[in-house]
């Protein structure tokens, strides 16, 4: 890992009205690192994820990606957003476009990639996520797990420096969760820098370099998966884990 982190948040604060959803957040993510954000609902995990590509603005503090501060708006923001891939809970695919068209849209429109080159790359990525044979279907013809894998291929098509995953499996039927997590584990093995908000503790154990535990808008604890799950240091983390790891 290089000395300079790829993503740096310093003293980040965010309010929704009276609610202080992010409180003095300091977090760095290095190249090739997989950071998994876990914690109770409403702890600020998704908001934190969304501030990194400015889907949510911040009140105070700074966020830099690859040494560049997040631009407020305009072309600079569009450029930076294309460096930060995003995979949401809902797949957000264009229903009237085929799988292939969904994956090539960003490279064609934003990166101005020639069509033939964009399609070749898209097919490689669809193969990588295990659905090359679905390229000419429409999203409605696919299962939820397949649609989420298309969304991952779409994020990868922009050749991002980091991909944010905001609860990517929580809208899926249980039997489809694993197929999406397997793709994510493989991306992690390939050295993709990833920030993942998830309730899937098995994924956190398998793929994370670091687990960041949040509660009430604050980072309460961060550690390696073995240390965090094996011997959490704070009472808040112990309490959380006792509730979720017993079933």
CATH fold type of the domain at 5-93 and 162-243: Rossmann fold
Beta content: 15-25%
The helix/strand class is: alpha/beta
State the CATH architecture of the domain at 5-93 and 162-243. Answer: 3-Layer(aba) Sandwich
CATH superfamily of the domain at 5-93 and 162-243: P-loop containing nucleotide triphosphate hydrolases
In DSSP terms (H or I, runs of 4 or more residues), the helix count works out at 9
Distance, first to last CA: 36 Å
In the CATH scheme, the class of the domain at 5-93 and 162-243 would be Alpha Beta
What report would you give on this structure?
- The protein is of the alpha/beta class.
- It has a domain at 5-93 and 162-243: 3-Layer(aba) Sandwich (Rossmann fold).
- The chain is 38% helix and 24% strand.
- It has a six-stranded mixed beta sheet, with helices on both faces. The protein has a four-stranded antiparallel beta sheet with strand order 2-1-4-5, with helices on one face.
- Helix 3 (99-109) packs parallel to helix 5 (144-157), helix 4 (115-128) packs across helix 5 and helix 5 packs parallel to helix 6 (174-189).
- The protein is globular, with a radius of gyration of 18 Å.
- The model has no long low-confidence stretch (mean pLDDT 92).
- This is ABC-type polar-amino-acid transporter.
- It catalyses: a polar amino acid(out) + ATP + H2O = a polar amino acid(in) + ADP + phosphate + H(+).
- It comes from Marinitenerispora sediminis.
- It is an enzyme of class 7 (translocase).
